[in-house]
Amino acid sequence: MVDASRMMLQRGRVFYRQKHLLAIEGLEPPAISQLLELAESYVLLNRSGKTQRDLLRGRTLINLFYEDSTRTRTSFELAGKRLGADVINMSVSTSSVNKGETLIDTATTLNAMHCDLLVVRHDQSGAPNLLARIVDAAVINAGDGTHEHPTQALLDALTIKRHKGCIAGLTVAICGDIAHSRVARSNIHLLTTMGCQVRVVGPPTLIPAEVANLGVTVFHDMAAGLDGADIVMMLRLQRERMSRGQVPSGREYFRFYGLDWEKLGYAKPDALVMHPGPMNRAVEIDSAVADDPLRSLIREQVEMGVAVRMAVLDTLSRGHGRNEP
Ligand code: NCD
Fold first, then answer.
1. Which pLDDT belongs to residue 101?
2. Closest ligand 1 atom to the C-alpha of 276?
3. Among 38, 71, 21, 37, which residue's Cα sits nearest to residue 300?
4. Which end of the chain is more exposed for a tag (fewer CB within 10 A), N or C?
């Protein structure tokens, strides 16, 4: 399957023509579809236990994480190793350094090491774009501040497509802490571009006014926001990015916005539940819903993450891109 996809990419048109993957915003539907098709073939390859270790042999992938991460970092590491790359993990604490200077210094150092693929997570929105202007490597945004998290949106789309058979025409409710969520922003761009009706649902303090300009409908009430939804995507309450008083106690929040069976009942009878993780159980989601194998896609999202990152590394390593981000 992977070989077939590669031939399709080599012979046919290549729709993803950027050197980097910094954001979903601005990608056209054919580029997104092509990444998802290639990722689908990697799901099958991974499940069959076969490997594809020649593709990135001799290439170096550096995971540069300025923020904590479990699933995203390990997922990129596994994806790189499955394709035969040399993978180096760098965890950098930003607590005591001047971030701007350090980022540029680090980029200069990494460039001297001739790294081919640079995966970056940073608490400042725009940090991966800055690095992309400095280094020769292809840069992949693994989450920057409250801006974007493009591979999360791609893995969410792949998960949805595999269960619903399509993406266009679905109603997706993204619920909770929209204000601090780069996952929400990337998903809004991807899902609206691919023809979904996207709703955002949450308390007014956690939904910035400008979100309404992104082609979504805003709801402050779960009953109305989930009514007729095909997909209910819950988000973590990101207290580490909040100023005081933005939300009440966890218990109070759960009462109004936490997903339990009762609130899921407002959505379509076959609605599926997603969460990018890590979850605050009993704050934004009830364990009974999160762990229900018939309704929850949360574990599968993690599996799709590896396949999507393999597809992204594969695509960028071919170097079809122009030299600007
Ligand atoms: C998300 C992130 O880091 O943006 N997590 C992830 O990548 N799986 C969401 C979050 O931290 O809540």
1. 64
2. 8
3. 71
4. N
